Amino acid sequence: MILLIDSYDSFTNNLANLIKATTEKEVILVHNDSFQLNEYESFYNQIKNYFDFIVIGPGPGHPAIKEDVGIISWLFHRIAKDTNGIPILGICLGFQSLCHEFGNKVETAEHIRHGQIYDIFPAGENDIYKNTEKFPSVRYHSLYVDGTKLNGEIIPLAYCYEPVEADPDKGQILMAAKHKSLPFYGVQYHPESICSNKGKDLFKNFTEIANEYNSRNGRNVSTCVQNEFQWFDKHALHERSLIEEASSTEPTNVLFEKVELPENITAVDVCDHFVRIGNGKIDFSLLNSASVPGEWSIIGFPIEGESEIISHSVDDMNHVYTNSYKSSERKKFNVDGHEGAWKFIAQKMYSKYISRDSIKRKINSNYNRELPFFGGYIGLISYEEGQHICFNKLKPICTSTTPDIKLMYVSRVLIRDHLTNEWFLLSINDKDDNWVKDIQSKLKDVKPIDLSEIASSVKDLCKDKDKDSISFEYPSQEIYRQQFDKCQEYLHSGDSYELCLTTQSKIKLPKYVTPWNIYKVLTLKKNPSPFSCFVDFDDCCLISSSPERFLSWKDERNGKGKLIQLRPIKGTVKNTEDVNFEKASKILKTPKEMGENLMIVDLIRHDLFQFTSDVEVTQLMAVEEYKTVFQLVSVIEGKLKENDKYFGIDILHRSLPPGSMTGAPKKRSVELLQDIESMQPNINEGGRRGIYSGVVGYWSVTDDSDWSVIIRSVFHYKDDIENSNELNLWRIGAGGAITVLSDVDGEWDEMNLKLSSALQAFN
């Protein structure tokens, strides 16, 4: 076995997968703070019997800070005292720790590189780089060890070179080293990155070094005996599924009808028709695709007094509530904190699971493509329902608890296939024939919306006497500069590679301005998008024009597992008459923009590798064009096999908040951002983002799901503390990734560009 010590990095699982694929040995992960000081010796006595070697992985911080490295410092010195100690290979922070523990200074680099590809040059022939002249690899580091000042305890093995014309020696950066006599090696670069080469060669060669050392020194590594290993095993990292038991139910009835509608009819036309004939009443949720890569529009129709709504707030962590649609009577369920709430929701979802095959057996009609949704939950999950949030720092923004999870079960659905322009009406309820006939009858009168009748701005929805009452509150640019400087401080100290700094603006509108009319202005006139939505609950409303898919999972074509897909966006250029695709590509294909995207690609690979070893980057940093912007988009896919112990909901749970909205390493970055974003008074209360940069989407009863990142969106809390008798407060978030290559004015402009995607609807 091989032991991998994780320092809470966001690339560790990529490293574990690389090691396992190369060595074909089991890799056991532990956090560097998994053990108390009085357990260190017992820990060491266990691992020296069972592990071929140790890999000390990357992570945020400095090797001289005890809280950043945990047991790592002690471990180097304990093994050094052992005549047949365990070989160690350190990566990034592990490399810096090796150098630091044996008397070499680790300091801030003059040229900080995060997500940058450099050629690595071995320092002559050595055992870790056999027959290798040079190779490209990715650097993620703010700190470095000066290879010209090594004290003799550490021997250089490889370098890379910065372009420094005045003093070429300053351009030589130490990239690999070993101890002069002990079996300790380290590399500064990240061999596990998607853009790094020779990672397998590194571990193949180190395995040979470790095996030769173990043989020469009489280290007989034993096969693990389970009862002897239990004490250590309880400290090891084990990902557990939220689902204790999943069983399939059989639908008693499925009504499925193809609906004939004119080719020019859209999902918004249909919803607007229902609003008009219902005298403004809204009894639907809309997940609406307006462009590629979205392919479907889904309209869910809840049933008053029946359809279940699940609610959770991090303000009331130990309770989950359910109620029926448009019913004020709620049931309260006790749960064990944040994890307990997720477990409750996951069990609720999968208790309603129906296999796609069993639904197909009930459907008499044929259809060309697999529908994505057969009924299930539609809703949103806030940023604060993700991992690593400091809940005690959050400040209230509602007079009641802030809605953080809102999921509504719908069993009646109208779906549009954008590729074939076909419409399908379905219900998984018993005896719903009359409803189907009623909807079909109403759909006969649908007409396209007359765009000339749609207001050009939300301001035009207000009465003339009220237009001056519309107020906007924007973040302070001066405070933003302070926030930017704080980000740079942490990026230079090695605490983060990338920080997605966000802020929010506030708009107060007359209460009579309806959310549906705001949605029409935003999505029909201003910002059509692949993942727009209209979701209106009793306590919050979301109007989204998001371009970014976060996570989807669906059946593979062979029906033997789930295909997982994530599509992170990093890198944005305004789409104007002066900027065409070629010019936008030139701007986006720069080290800064590509570095931002690469970091999130590696982070997402890490998230997926928690659950499957079958992960592939199918699109790396491609430029995509939208109505208002050009963006740099990657696609990462994974597969869950049919007999896997994990489910899609496990990946959703552990991947939130979205990496594209946090940065990397995620844990440290989320913690830092919460404090930095709270610097804007009355904008991000306690660093609270709320619905912004959470996710919205659906979970189908067939266990297919699609979630988009809540950006380019506006949202409203019905109990917002800033609502008044006459005015409602609406919130809009925007932000961007801050790296060491960022410019404060450029980032401020980019944030305002993203803000304008939604804000333009109000001007």
Description:
This protein has 763 residues and is of the alpha+beta class. The chain has two domains: 2-233, Rossmann fold, CATH 3.40.50; 255-762, Anthranilate synthase, CATH 3.60.120. The chain contains 18 helices and 33 strands. The strands form three sheets. Strands 10, 11, 12, 18, 19, 20, 21, 22, 23, 29, 32 and 33 form a twelve-stranded antiparallel beta sheet that branches. Strands 13, 14, 15, 16, 17, 24, 25, 26, 27, 28, 30 and 31 form a twelve-stranded antiparallel beta sheet that branches. A nine-stranded mixed beta sheet has the order 2-1-3-4-9-8-7-5-6, sandwiched between helices. The termini are far apart. The model has no long low-confidence stretch (mean pLDDT 91).
Number of domains: 2
CATH superfamily descriptor of the largest domain: Anthranilate synthase
Q: What's the pLDDT, averaged over the residues?
A: 91
* Beta-strand content: 25-35%
Unreliable spans are none
The general outline is globular
Number of strands: 33
| Count of alpha and pi helical runs | 18
Helix content: 25-40%
Which CATH architecture of the largest domain?
Answer: 4-Layer Sandwich
Q: Which fold name fills CATH's third level, the topology of the largest domain?
A: Anthranilate synthase
Secondary structural class: alpha+beta
Assembly annotation: single chain
Give the termini separation: 62 Å
> Gyration radius, to the nearest Å?
28 Å
Biggest pleated sheet:
12 strands, antiparallel
The level 1 CATH classification of the largest domain is: Alpha Beta
